[in-house]
Amino acid sequence: MRTGIRNERRVRNVPSVPPKSKESEVMWSDIAGRILINAISYPIEYAKVLIQIGYEPIPPKPTVTLFGKPALKLPNAFTYIKHIKKLDGLTGCYRGLVPKVCSYTVSTIACDKTLEYLQVNSEEQNEDEEDEDESVRRKKCINEIIKDVISRTVAIVVSHPLEVISLRMMAQFVGGETKYSSVFGSFLEIYRENGILGYYAGLIPRVIGSAAVIVLSGISTYAINNYIIQEPTMKPYTASTMKFVATTVMYPFLVVSHCMAVNNCGLVAGLPPYMPVYQNWLHCWSHLSTHNQLKRGSSLLWRYYTGPQMLLNGKLIPIMGDNFYQPSS
C-alpha cells in the first residue's frame, strides 16, 4: 500500500514539459519550413532583386498589350533565371543564399523575442470580444499594431547587415565581381567600402515600408471586420487580404531600399551607367519616380519596358545609354 502511494507521488512529481520548450520547438520547425521554401524559390527572388536594381541584360521585344497598344516586352523572371544559369550554372542561381537564410533566422528570432517581451510587460485581461466596448477593442487594436511595429523594426535593424551582404552578393552578377564571397569577408568588405553606415544602407526606406504595411493592414482589417463584414466565417481572411494590398501599395519602399543597399558600394551594379550615385534614399525615390521605375520587379510574368523610348518606322525602340536599361556585353 505504501509502495503504491510512493509511486503515485512519484508520478505526480514528474515534471511536465514546459510550455516554452514546446513553443520553441514550434518556432524552430516553422523557421526550418520557411527556410526550405525560401531556398526552393530563391532563384526567383534572385532574379527579382536584379530587376529591382535596374539590371536588364536581355533586350525588350516589340509587342502589344491586351488593349492593342504598342509596347516593349521584357523577359519574365523564368527567362531571367535561365540567363543566370547559362552564365553562372545552377549553383550561380543561389548566390547570396547563405546570408539570406541567416538574415531570415535572426529576423524571426528577434521579432518573436521582442514581441514576447512586449506582451509580458503589458498584461491585458482577455475578455470576450462580443462583450467588449468599442473603445476597448479600438485600444487593443492600436496596442497590437504598436507592438507589431516595434518588434518588426527591431528585427529589421538586427538582421539588416546580413540583408545588405545578400543583396550585394546578388548584385555582383552584373559586373562579374567576387568581392563579396563569404559572410565574414563581406562584413570586412562593407566596412572598407562604406564604414559602419554601410551595414545599414537602405535601412530607412525598409523600416518605413514595413511599418506602413503593418499600420495600414492593421487599421483596415479592424475597420472592415467591425463595420463592413458581418459574417464571422469571412473575418479570418481579411487580415491576409489587407496585408497583401498594403504590401503592394508600399512596394516602392522595397525597391528604393534594395537600390540604396547596392548604390556606390564599389560594385558595377551600384555605379553609373547602371545606377546613378544617390545622395540619400529620397534622391533615389525622386529619380526612380521621374522615370516610372518605382514598381519594377512587382510583376514577374508580364513585364514591359517603361524607360525612354522612341518611335522608328512604326516600332517602339528603347533608348540605349539609359540608367535603367543596359544591353548585356
How would you describe this structure to a colleague?
The strands form 2 sheets. The protein has a 3-stranded antiparallel β-sheet, with no helix packed on it. The protein has a two-stranded antiparallel sheet with strand order 4-5. The protein contains 11 helices and 5 strands. Helix 2 (19-40) packs antiparallel against helix 5 and helix 3 packs across helix 4. The longest helix has 42 residues, at 134-175. It has helices spanning 2-13, 19-40, 42-52, 77-92, 97-120, 134-175, 183-194, 203-227, 236-249, 251-262, 281-290, and strands at 61-64, 70-74, 303-304, 309-312, 315-318. The protein is mainly alpha-helical and 329 residues long. The chain is globular and about 60 Å long. Residues 1-11 have a biased composition (Basic and acidic residues). Belongs to the mitochondrial carrier (TC 2.A.29) family. It comes from Cardiocondyla obscurior.
Uncertain stretches: 7-18, 320-329
Main β-sheet, spatial strand arrangement:
1-2-3
Helical/strand content category: mainly alpha
Shape: globular
Helix content: 55-70%
- Number of helix segments? 11
**What is the radius of gyration computed over CA atoms, rounded to a whole number of angstroms?**
25 Å
Biggest sheet record:
3 strands, antiparallel
In total, the number of strands is: 5
Q: Which assembly state applies to the chains in this document?
A: single chain
Output the helix-strand order. Answer: HHHEEHHHHHHHHEEE
Main location: mitochondrion
Subcellular location: Mitochondrion outer membrane
Protein name: Mitochondrial carrier-like protein 2
Membrane topology: Multi-pass membrane protein
